[in-house]
TrEMBL record:
The lineage of its organism: Eukaryota, Metazoa, Chordata, Craniata, Vertebrata. Gene3D superfamilies: P-loop containing nucleotide triphosphate hydrolases. It is found in: Cytoplasm. One of its GO terms (molecular function) is sulfotransferase activity. It comes from Kryptolebias marmoratus. This is Sulfotransferase. Residues 43-292 form the Sulfotransferase domain.
């Protein structure tokens, strides 16, 4: 255990990555496996599923405001988003387990976050026919965001330099495994499971109002134009960055001096990181892995 130089909390040593049923994981997301798998979903639970660094926090906050923004303004100021929308598989003592937080959520519906690949989602979510919102983010910006997140977050395994990290990403040696398999298998699930809304980070940055409308129609919500506008404004990058309940500043394991959690919030920051030859190699490899013509990502907007 190491003492962090930016807070009084004792930080655990960084975890190691290992193969877990074919997916790279760390113990923080597998240690509570049986309990997580036995989670008892309710029919009105809403699962927000993403590969890490896809805009999870953004969409969690959006849903949180759409459902509860008016009802309990006090809760918005005193309870962090991480508690309002628990991270189901997280098991990082001394923090409470995500599964327990989800069990104890006082809200209805319960909003629950997960990064699990589709094959690992606890079966009760399917049995109860829960609504699921999946958010996908183009691979190039995701790997850049993940790299900076890995540097600032001590729950992430040790990482090498940028070019090593990029290579690891292409090989699926990331926490929660291969981005390529994650986005593809969730996309395939959508073809047979109608209560899945598949969103793109790039669409959100392009027109968040339109995406909020689509979300509402999926969720069966009918907020007034004024309410929608309030949500749209609250979830703007600069506003979220200032908001201590959602910007990660209360999370002790993150060092925002290394890189802020609310970092850039832009599409195409990859252009500031990829060299020309890295980009060529990446594109070549991408073509091999992304054969489904119906799943299309934009790397600029
Ligand atoms: P960057 O590192 O590219 O800035 P997640 O919540 O899944 O961990 O995703 C984090 C990424 O989403 C970060 O990307 C973060 O800045 C971005 N993000 C969070 N809120 C956002 C918002 N309101 N608008 C745009 N991007 C947002």
């Amino acid at each position: 255990w190491l003492r962090s130089n930016f807070s009084s909390e004792i930080l655990p040593a960084r975890p190691t990555l290992f193969d877990f049923h074919g997916v790279s994981m760390t113990k923080h997301f597998t240690d509570n496996w049986e309990n997580t798998q036995n989670f008892k979903a309710r029919p009105d639970d809403i699962l927000i599923a993403t590969y890490p660094k896809s805009g999870t926090t953004w969409v969690c906050y959006m849903l949180n405001l759409l459902y509860f923004g008016n009802m309990s303004p006090e809760r918005q100021k005193s309870v962090t988003l991480n508690e309002r929308v628990p991270f189901l598989e997280l098991c990082a003592p001394p923090r409470p387990k995500g599964k327990d937080l989800a069990d104890q959520l006082p809200t209805s519906p319960r909003l629950i976050k997960t990064h699990l690949p589709v094959q690992f989602v606890p079966k009760s979510f399917w049995e109860q026919r829960c609504r699921i919102v999946y958010v996908a983010h183009n691979s190039k910006d995701t790997v850049v965001s993940y790299y900076h997140f890995g540097r600032m977050n001590s729950l992430h395994p040790e990482l090498g330099d940028w070019s090593t990290f990029l290579q690891d990403f292409m090989e699926g040696k990331m926490v929660f495994g291969s981005w390529y398999k994650h986005v593809n298998s969730w996309w395939e699930k959508k073809q047979t499971y109608s209560k899945l809304h598949y969103m793109f980070y790039e669409d959100l940055t392009e027109d968040s109002g339109r995406e909020i409308d689509r979300l509402c129609s999926f969720l069966g919500l009918f907020p007034s134009a004024e309410e929608k506008e309030k949500v749209r404004a609250a979830v703007m990058f600069d506003n979220m960055k200032q908001n201590k309940m959602v910007n990660g500043s209360t999370v002790q394991i993150m060092n925002h001096d290394v890189s802020p959690f609310m970092r850039k919030g832009k599409v195409a920051d990859w252009k500031n990181h990829f060299t020309v030859s890295q980009n060529e190699r990446f594109d070549e490899d991408y073509k091999q892995k992304m054969k489904n013509p119906t799943l299309h990502f934009r790397t600029e907007v």
